[in-house]
Design a protein that fits this description.
The chain contains 3 helices and no strands. By secondary structure, the protein is an all-alpha fold. The two termini are 24 Å apart.
Amino acid sequence: MRLLGYILLIVGFVGLSLRLYARGGVTEAIAIHQFQSMPQQETYSRGDVIDAMKKVAAYSWDEGNSSPVRGALIMLLGGILIDVGSRLKKPNPN
């Protein structure tokens, strides 16, 4: 049981780490996409800047919205299994 707990703890951690690592690529893709779609002019009005900010926020929400709950729950389950397994292994002092 403890072995399964450690495996789940590691799998959850790796899943979270990979998800966060991949998020950096999403951020870079958003920046490149928005830079290429900007109009080429020297000055921008306040409305142009606000529209660009709204586009970046919406695009980043659509492309990079990933919840860490799944990996966190796997890690929690692994921690619980480790705890239960260590309690079952110890003899009662009674």
